[in-house]
């Protein structure tokens, strides 16, 4: 018996709705971005930009945050705004295949709004040293560069094992890592910086603080009497910025003995250069007599 036209039209309409629903579902569900030279990626964090370049995806990066400055080639890339306030309109206009974010600096609302706009995202969730290899592999899987990501992760894992097996004679040196001199902010526990100190057999004098990067008093620094003080170079002339702090701490043996070291940004970015940061700390520690 022939199917009535109304039924045929109804079935066709339902089929169309199902196809559109499937297309929308694919659009909004997370998944791997297409591989190849035509893939377009936007990075919203400096460490992620470094990871992308390390994975051989520098040419596919079409825009970065205003804080992304390494490797040097990144400086020529279009800027899409800050880490906390990127231009959503600008991102949509560039039609990326993927936007990569970090949960340590990019607000969750940004990722949710991007997904709501139908843009694929990947959130990098590395806050501790041991998280980094796993998260590099996860990013590699999301961008279809698993082999490159595994090589990068293995290199970091080898470095962690190598430094972990080394030992320094004598009691553990007491260390303070200054993140910001005015007002004084230091690296506490629960951070990759703390993990690196522990890996190298050092004692973080700010380990008992309640937050990862707490404000710290001068009185507490003097009471803790660190053997070594590391100061992150950060932005601008950090030596000039820290001069007042060091003058107020001049009674400390670390300052009198010249054991104040300015360190680069590698340890402050959870990316492939973290091994260089570990080596930098280890080199300074070796210069201190047991």
3D architecture notes:
It is a single chain. This protein is of the alpha/beta class and 290 residues long. The chain folds into two domains: 41-162, Nitrogenase molybdenum iron protein domain (Rossmann fold), CATH 3.40.50; 167-286, Nitrogenase molybdenum iron protein domain (Rossmann fold), CATH 3.40.50. The protein has eleven helices and nine strands. Strands 5, 6, 7, 8 and 9 form a five-stranded mixed β-sheet that branches. The protein has a four-stranded parallel β-sheet with strand order 2-1-3-4, sandwiched between helices. A hairpin with a 4-residue loop joins β5 (174-180) and β6 (185-186). The chain is globular and about 55 Å long. The relative contact order is 0.11.
Q: In short, what is this structure?
A:
By secondary structure, the protein is α/β, with parallel strands linked by helices. The chain contains eleven helices and nine strands.
């Amino acid at each position: 018996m022939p199917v009535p036209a109304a039924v045929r039209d109804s079935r066709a309409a339902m089929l169309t709705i199902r196809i559109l629903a499937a297309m929308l579902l694919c659009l909004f569900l997370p998944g791997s971005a297409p591989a190849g030279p035509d893939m377009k990626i936007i990075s919203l964090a400096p460490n992620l930009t470094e990871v992308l370049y390390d994975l051989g995806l520098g040419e596919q990066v079409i825009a970065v945050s205003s804080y992304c400055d390494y490797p040097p080639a990144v400086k020529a890339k279009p800027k899409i705004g800050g880490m906390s306030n990127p231009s959503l309109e600008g991102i949509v206009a560039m039609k990326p295949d993927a936007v990569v974010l970090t949960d340590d600096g990019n607000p969750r609302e940004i990722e949710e709004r991007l997904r709501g706009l139908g843009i694929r995202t990947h959130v990098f969730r590395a806050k501790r040293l041991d998280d980094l290899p796993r998260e590099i592999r996860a990013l590699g899987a999301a961008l279809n560069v698993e082999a490159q990501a595994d090589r990068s992760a293995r290199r970091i894992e080898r470095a962690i094992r190598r430094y972990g097996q080394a030992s320094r004679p004598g009691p553990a040196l007491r260390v303070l890592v200054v993140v910001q001199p005015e007002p004084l902010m230091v690296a506490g526990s629960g951070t990759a910086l703390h993990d690196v100190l522990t890996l190298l057999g050092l004692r973080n004098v700010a380990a008992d603080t309640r937050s990862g990067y707490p404000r710290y008093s001068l009185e507490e620094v003097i009471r803790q009497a660190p053997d070594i003080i590391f100061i992150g170079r950060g932005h601008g002339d950090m030596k000039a910025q820290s001069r007042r702090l060091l003058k107020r701490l001049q009674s400390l043996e670390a300052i009198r003995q010249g054991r104040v070291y300015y360190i680069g940004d590698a340890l402050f970015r959870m990316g492939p250069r973290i091994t260089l940061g570990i080596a930098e700390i280890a080199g300074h520690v070796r210069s201190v007599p047991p």
